[in-house]
Specification:
The protein has 517 residues and is of the alpha/beta class. The chain contains 17 helices and 16 strands. The protein binds 3-methyl-2-oxobutanoic acid and zinc ion.
Length: 517
């Protein structure tokens, strides 16, 4: 089995995707997580791009021990000098220099002819080699480059000292078959190719970045460049988790492995989502919320009998804790009874039927039914839902030159309760005011806004997760006003917490009574 190097460019190409910029602290946190994930190379940034990028690369070089730390640089002396300044503290470092080689890029972007580009590339690889042994050269837009010219420039840069040659599909234009032949052509026509690693770097404009990377691997590439969650320029880069798990699950086809610690995949994905605020879709392969969820009754029954009926990999293999079953319209009673037992309830048939019918009714109102919803259903059924906070009104004072203040009025058991709080923005202020009213505070674990309709007056749905005492409470709120939707979602979670707390207290009381008997 060959070992394929994983070159992670989340902090460079990934950060180039709109809205995904990270500050230095966040970048260091990501780099440390990438080290736990055991990537071979971390491309920490583009040192000349900004002072912040330079400092982040330098700090990562000092903080990360195992992976190679790389900085991107154009094929220009000043870029290479700065890149080296940023990576020089790393245990293992790499200068990654690039120049475009396709006719269209050379003519319109560089305004250079082939001869000039070739000379420039060779001179800059030689220049970089004086500073650093490990040099990666990228022929930007390689997949649209004239093949003879590509073979020639790769031969020359390897001769000049490049230790890795990267063949980017910069615009996400190639197809698996074409890319396979491109890599094979390089292996067959560049006589010194054995002296360098062949790297591939695919963009996802046609949705083929992962397939193209895997096709290249079969043709002999031994480094894949990718990003966590597939973030990156335009439609993104090949997703690391998809490349790695495809190789793992289909070892029979790819006959190769990576050094990746797969149990760190889900954590890495969550960290990137939280830091960038760019959450993956629920049906995203490997790391999406629903990637291991089974809704239909037939699937649920199968998975309960033998996971392999509908699962080609286990959630545990990527570090995901449970095989979460989301209930929905199509769920069967078998899985429902199983979930009740898992939650510790052994109800008689009558109550099970009651609860099952109520769960089905709930499915018509709510798309996804989570474990916590089932607990609430049980609690309500057991008539324990005596209280519940309802929103009466809220008043916000906010602006860009002042802290936000929120005044919240809630009704509980006929009483009017009111509190004011300052916060970091109107939503934070509102959540703090609610905490003051109920006298309990929570950790906000997740917060998402979805638009349920179109236009300026779109209905927004906020879903969030609050955590307290190691338990999670999911809440949903809907309104055309996102602050109101957020407050309603927060109250939804708070009310679930209250119900379950009441349920716990009653059970403890019941246990205590029974023990003392
Ligand atoms: O997509 C691309 O061509 C790149 C290079 C700079 C490697 O990101
Ligand atoms: Zn790229």
């Amino acid at each position: 089995m060959r070992t394929i190097k994983i070159f992670d460019t989340t902090l460079r190409d990934g950060e180039q995707s709109p809205g995904c910029s990270m500050n230095i602290k966040e970048k260091i946190e990501v780099a440390k997580q990438l080290e736990k994930l055991n990537v071979d190379v971390i491309e920490a940034g583009f040192a000349i791009a900004s002072k912040g990028d330079f400092e982040a690369i330098r700090e990562i070089s000092k903080n990360v021990k195992k992976p190679i730390v790389a900085s991107l640089s154009r094929a220009l002396k000043k870029d290479i000098d700065i890149a080296y300044e940023a990576i020089k503290y790393a245990n293992k470092n790499r200068i990654h220099t690039f120049i475009a080689t396709s006719d269209i890029h050379m003519e319109y972007k560089l305004k250079m002819d082939k001869k000039e580009v070739l000379k420039h590339a060779v001179d800059m690889v030689k220049y970089a080699k004086k500073l650093c042994y490990d040099i990666e050269f990228s022929a930007e837009d390689a997949s649209r480059t004239n093949k003879e010219f590509l073979y020639e420039i790769l031969y020359e840069v390897i001769k000049a000292g490049a230790t890795t040659v990267n063949i980017p599909d910069t615009v996400g234009y190639t197809t698996p078959e074409e890319y396979y032949h491109l890599i094979k052509g390089i292996r067959d026509n560049v006589s010194n190719i054995k002296n360098a690693d062949i790297s591939v770097h695919c963009h996802n404009d046609l949705g083929m970045a992962v397939s193209n990377s895997l096709a290249a691997l079969r043709a002999g590439a031994n480094q894949i460049e990718c990003t966590i969650n597939g973030i990156g320029e335009r439609a993104g880069n090949a997703a690391l988790e998809e490349v790695v798990m495809a190789m793992d699950v289909r070892k029979d086809i790819y006959v190769s492995k990576t050094n990746i610690n797969k149990k760190e995949i889900i954590k890495s994905s969550n960290l990137i989502s939280t830091i960038t605020g760019s959450f993956v879709s629920a049906n995203k392969a490997i790391v999406g919320e629903n990637a291991f969820a089974h809704e239909s009754g037939i699937h649920q029954h199968g998975v309960l009998e033998n996971k392999e009926t509908y699962e080609i990999m286990t959630p545990e293999s990527i570090g995901k804790k449970e095989n979460k079953i989301v209930f929905g319209k199509h769920s069967g009673k078998h899985a429902f009874i199983n979930k009740l037992e898992e939650l510790g309830y052994n109800f008689d048939e009558f109550r099970i039927n009651e609860l099952f019918n109520q769960m089905k009714d709930l499915c018509d109102k709510k798309k996804n039914i989570y474990e916590s919803d089932i607990e609430v259903l049980i609690a309500k059924n057991l008539k324990l839902n005596q209280s519940g906070y309802k929103l009466k009104s809220f008043v916000i004072n906010t602006g860009n030159i002042t802290n936000s203040t929120s005044t919240i009025k809630l009704i509980s058991e006929g009483n009017l309760l009111e509190e004011v709080s300052l916060g970091d923005g109107p939503i934070d202020a509102s959540f703090k005011a609610i905490d003051k009213i109920i006298g309990v505070s929570f950790i906000l674990k997740d917060y998402k806004i979805n638009s349920l309709s179109k236009g300026k007056d779109a209905l927004g749905e906020v879903s969030l997760i609050l955590k307290r005492d190691n338990k999670k409470y999911r809440g949903i709120g809907m309104s055309t006003d996102i602050i109101e939707a957020s407050i309603l979602a927060y109250l939804d979670s708070v009310n679930k917490y209250m119900i379950l707390k009441e349920l716990d207290n009653n059970e403890n009381e019941y246990d205590a009574k029974n023990i003392s008997k």
